[in-house]
Request: fold
Amino acid sequence: MRTTWRLRSLAACSGAGQLAFLESAACCHAMLRALALAAAALLLVPVAGCKNRTKPVTQTPNYAAELPEGQPALREVDTATLPPFRLTPAERSALQQGIVYSQAFLSKPSSVVRFPKELPITRDLVQASLSDLAKLLATASDDELDRAIRTRYRAFMSVGWDGKGGVLLSGYYTPILAASWNREGPYQYPVYSKPAQLVGGSVEKQASWKRLDGTLMPCPSYAELEASGQLKGRELAWLTDPFDAYNVRVQGSAKIRLPDGKVADIGYAGTTGHEYVSIGKMMVADGKIAPDKLSAQSMRAYFAAHPEELAIYAAKNPRGIFFAVTSGGPFGSLGQPVTTDVTVATNKQIFPPAAAMLVQTTVVGANGKVEPYTALRLDQDTGGAMRAPGRADLYMGVGEAAGLRSGGQWYEGRMWYLVLK
Reply:
């Protein structure tokens, strides 16, 4: 699950979690957010007759479109078509650390079953490719690295939402939120530890709920569990803001700053497993927020002005995550730490976990400016909104600055998985 927050437009979301509402989704501040691809792609269609000019036909991107039955999520392409890339020393260092985490996951025998059987990319192939890539990062210049990728590797492009490689790349991060272990003063909004009655459940599968007689039933929605009092006594921590509490239970992890100034980590411990429902999309459909204005900030501002509506919208998303105190995180769905500007979250049922990727898109830079982006990254996480070949989430780090960047991240791009020949 996603272990951090998606501050993007809460419209999509997407382990631990997830503002998928954002999803995620969910957290950010001053966002220069250009919802560059919410606009439709124009296709020119020839019209018969010399008096008629070509007319544009509007096709609205459906980034959540799932694969047709039997169609693979990846298509091999010529490496000569890959975009050129360059890595700063800091990017190389971060990527090398991320490879260590990917290799730690792959070293576990259980990782074999995490690879979709229909993919041409196996665990052994990913392991060998990452070992080779680590050596290249330590010794090769940018030109040598680029040349090695084109001559020694194979490239598999995501088919995207349109079958042509279009992928919406949003952003997520790990917030640091004011919280207390006790309900006191401004700390009135809980996040919960995993209930003993919760059985199973994952990003892809709904959990079960154990009745008093020991039999199992489908897990109720998060709102139903809370309203019925079945979560009472499971409060792990109390936050100061109800929107933050919602975002956390969608995203799946956070850092919290306690009244004494100490910082603790809380992370994924379980989920209801219900399909994620974007409250951001619902707010747009209801006319609460304009499509081109949807962001964590605009949602936060709306609920600040209409506090009575947050619970109504939150109840429409049946998905929810439960927490435990952790350390050394935040962690991704591979059980390993996520790495700033390296980790990518995707659907691990259709893409190979831990693998090296080349990502090309547009990002909001540290200076707040929108700029083109092409870089090597690693597929190390997942999220409730990351269900389709046309969706992926870029992890952008911890804290407010990362939140600002991730909140503005909402651009179409391409992504290729790289493995040795």
Summary: The chain has a mean pLDDT of 85.
